[in-house]
Design brief:
Shape: globular
Order of helices and strands: HHEEEEEEE
Strand content: 25-35%
Strand order of the largest sheet: 1-2-3-4-5
Structural class: alpha+beta
Helix content: 10-25%
Length: about 130
């Protein structure tokens, strides 16, 4: 991942310092997209107020799919969330759902989510992916 923007490069360098999260992000981008060579990264949006600070970055693959992910967030649960936008749909992935499992092309769709409901003894995750339902 590269950028011509020095501030984006600084965010990328900070991401690389957390190698576990960074390597998982790279793996998932390679599973979800069609990337060749160096990938150009830029700012998508920033939130910086009294309550939170978040920086989202974006890139595209060779098929012009849009990928948005967090470069920084004061909420650690955001760091492993990726949104993939195609011409037909927008898909959201939460890599924390994979826990310690190795992600591959066969199980990456299990990290897709649409809504997450918290309960006293756990959480229920729902998705609109019909192929996963009988």
């Amino acid at each position: 991942m590269v950028s011509s923007n020095e501030e984006v490069n600084s965010v990328l360098n900070n991401m690389k310092s957390n190698s576990k999260v960074y390597l998982k992000l790279i793996t998932v981008l390679q599973l979800l997209g069609n990337f060749e060579g160096k990938t150009k990264i830029d700012f998508y949006d920033k939130i910086d107020d009294d309550k939170e600070k978040k920086i989202r970055l974006w890139c595209t693959d060779s098929d012009d799919n849009l990928f948005v992910f967090y470069g920084y967030s004061s909420d650690r649960t955001d760091l492993l969330k990726i949104t993939k936008g195609t011409n037909e749909e927008t898909l959201e992935y939460d890599l924390t759902l994979a826990k310690k499992f190795t992600l591959n092309s066969n199980n990456i769709n299990f990290t897709r989510f649409n809504q997450i409901y918290g309960f006293k003894f756990g959480r229920l995750i729902t998705d609109s992916n019909k192929s996963m339902h009988p």
